[in-house]
Design goal:
alpha/beta, Rossmann fold, 5-stranded parallel beta sheet, 8 helices, 5 strands, 13% strand
Length: 156
């Protein structure tokens, strides 16, 4: 993988996991992020546990964070944040604590029918990573993604 980090956290929040712990590199789409950090979805619990344990190396880009910030302001999401006693800032802080920001990846040769999902495809293909998504546009590309070294799934 050839990536260059956008920025590293200044507070040292992303400490290296113990050297014996295997790390799985992963790209996580916005809906899964919401499941993990807002809805506390039981199906997303293993993702959160793996992030907390440091066994996942979650890679992301600034546009992915920007999308999450935008989605957190959607009228259907704001009441859910209030219900769970969260703020958009809380969710973004979780993103910042767990995600490793990289430069935007080069456009993959695969095209997603939903342009909003392309950034996730591009980064996953560039890193040949696991791509966690519930999006039907992404999951419908599973076989084509696998040919590019990407496993697309809804859960780890």
């Amino acid at each position: 993988m050839m990536f260059k980090a956008d920025a590293a956290p200044s507070d040292g929040a992303l400490a290296e996991p113990p050297s014996e712990a295997p790390r799985q590199t992963v790209v996580i789409d916005t809906n899964i992020i919401l499941d993990v950090f807002v809805f506390a979805d039981t199906a997303a619990r293993p993702v959160r546990q793996a992030l907390e344990a440091g066994t996942l190396d979650w890679i992301a880009t600034r546009p992915m964070r920007d999308e999450l910030a935008r989605v957190l302001g959607y009228p259907q999401i704001v009441p859910r944040l209030a219900f769970y006693q969260l703020s958009a800032g809380d969710v973004l802080a979780s993103f910042d604590r767990h995600a490793r920001l990289l430069d935007v990846a080069v456009k993959a040769r695969l095209n997603c029918s939903d342009p909003d999902d392309q950034k996730f495809i591009d980064l996953a293909v560039a890193g040949q990573t696991l791509l966690l998504s519930k999006d039907r546009h992404v999951l419908s590309m599973s076989k084509r993604l696998l040919a590019h070294g990407v496993r697309a799934r809804a859960a780890i």
